[in-house]
Amino acid sequence: MSTALLKSAQKTPVMSLKSIQLTDNGKVTLEELPIPEVGGSDLLVEMKACGLCGTDIEKLHGEYTASAPILGHEAVGVIRTVGADLKGFNPGDRIFPHHHVPCYECYLCKHGNETMCPHYRKYNLDPGGFSELFRVPSWNVLHGGILKLPDSVSFEHASLIEPIACCLRNIKRSHLDETDAVLVMGAGPMGLIHLQLLLLLGKTVHVSDMSEKRLDVANALGASSISNPKEVDVASVMRDQTDGRGVDVAIVATGSPKAIEEGLRSVRKGGIVSLFGVPVKDSILNYDFSNTVNSEISIIPSNAATEVETREALDLIVDGKPNFETIITHRFRLEEFNEAISMAMKKESVKILISS
Ligand SMILES: [Zn+2]
Ligand SMILES: [Zn+2]
Questions:
Q1: What is the value of pTM for the model shown?
Q2: What are the domain boundaries of the chain?
């Protein structure tokens, strides 16, 4: 059968899919939803793995501020249906679809702020990544948001493309080229990915977290020091580690305002505080901001990633990096989503993957 025939024969059958949806009262339900219509250059994808992100948990608690509360954006899978207008993709292709894609043409895109593009958050996986099947909108497909996965890359590893890409972009924005000593605050999945990427760049990396279990993982991965803010003053430890200066860069890989304050106190004069975790809604800092000018401290936030970084992330994964076993610690099925959330809340897991 020719591809054209195959495509036209694939009129979406009237069927339903199971999807994790947010309800009004901050809970989730596994709902039966109609399969979205696959028009134009859309793709219908069968989900094989989708990472549970800290922002999914924030969305559940009504604490997320950046975009609409659609759950699941670290999804990978197999194309089931190809929109009639689309060339170059076929049913059966194993892919990573980026849930947000900029236009690369507007003023913000051309000035290095692609993730602030007005188109960036306009489209998303439909009805979300925690679904048996989801539609990838034409916009994302036509603007480079789809990466084909080499056979050597498993779906589990490929589900880290989006989180790794976000870390890569943050590292670029934090001017880490000119620095040596970095403090990563928060040893969740994003903190541990940052740690490993920074070690690959030859940096000295210190890690802080409230969970001893996560600190043990950071230690095993090669952190130069680990500190628990419940037991020590992280800023003092950082000065002890750097001849009294403070670290060059503190990466705040958590949404906690306390961690931001600690980051501001942990960097050297002229240092950089990189805000990576999205602070919870209504975050207020208890910090004397005159210090930022007197000590010339820069605050640089980084939000999400572009197709440049998703491609770089896939290249790293093809090379077998980072150490996946330390990051992916738990696996649940869609039906077990509530158990996955309970596990994530305990902070003893690192990255939790959901499969259909
Ligand atoms: Zn994420
Ligand atoms: Zn744009």
A1: 0.93
A2: 3-165+305-355, 175-301
Report which bound ligand comes closest to the CA of 108.
Answer: 2
If you measure from the C-alpha of residue 282 to the centroid of ligand 2, how many angstroms do you get, rounded to a whole number? 28
Q: What is the pLDDT of residues 218-239, one digit of tens each?
A: 999 999 999 999 999 999 999 9
Record the tokens describing residue 47, joined without a space: 């989900």
Reply yes or no on whether the pLDDT at 12 is more than 80. Answer: no
| pLDDT for 65 | 67
Centroid of ligand 2 to alpha carbon of 111 (angstroms)? 9
Centre of ligand 2 from the C-alpha of residue 100, in Å: 11
What's the gap in Å between 116 CA and the centre of ligand 2? 7
**Any idea what the Cα angle at residue 296 is, between residues 238 and 164, rounded to 5°?**
60
Buried b (16+ CB within 10 A) or exposed e, 113-149: ebbbbebbbbbbbbbbbbbbbbbbbbbbbebbbbbeb
138 vs 111: CA distance, rounded Å: 25
Ligand closest to Cα of 190 equals 1
Cα(76)–Cα(47) distance, integer angstroms: 6
CATH assignment, 175-301: 3.40.50.720
Comparing 65 with 78, which gets the higher pLDDT? Answer: 78
Dihedral sign of CA atoms 221, 323, 140, 108 in order: positive
Q: Tell me the CA–centroid distance for residue 107 and ligand 2, in Å.
A: 7
In whole angstroms, what is the distance from residue 202 CA to residue 199 CA?
5
How much distance in Å is there from the Cα of 71 to the middle of ligand 1?
10
Report the length, in residues, of the chain: 356
Fold exhibited by the domain 3-165+305-355 = Quinone Oxidoreductase; Chain A, domain 1 (3.90.180)
The secondary structure of residue 245, as a DSSP letter, is S
- Ligand 1 centroid–CA 165 distance in Å is 10
β-bridge partners, 22: 28
How far does the centroid of ligand 1 lie from the alpha carbon of residue 53, in Å?
4
Distance CA 4, CA 64 (A): 43
82: β partners: 43
